[in-house]
Amino acid sequence: GEPHRDSGKVYLYGADGYLTSVRFAEPHRHSGAVMSYEDGELVHVRRANGRACSFLDGGRCMRVEFQEGVVYHYEGGVRTHIAWVDSHLDSGKTCSYGNDGKLTRAKFTWPHRNSGMVVLYNDGLHVRTEYAKWDSNHSEILHFRDGKPSG
Fold it and tell me: How many CB atoms are located within 10 Å of the residue 66 CB?
């Protein structure tokens, strides 16, 4: 006959009887995925494609990590940050978002090619850029009005 639809799914429990993880192997459609639990609560999911989600905020996703080196952070179900990490072309870049979902800040740190730069946004519009000058003790600051350089 046909294999069970959950064939390849394995549940692991701790000594206290609480579920600790669920692993998916062939021939399951989610083969390669792992779900981790603490005290019976889902805290982490890693899919076969490398995408991972962490849960702590009352079961809401707090962090999503993509295999390509991009990490999303959430608070209260709202995306607050995106970070580029590891060997990603934009590694060192971080974007911050307000409760309305609009971009508020982009920050560039090493090893990003724009390392030392901070760009600020208001209501989604570019309002200020700070450039660190590594050869002196001061920074250059550019101001913007309506998303365009001013004065």
Answer: 16
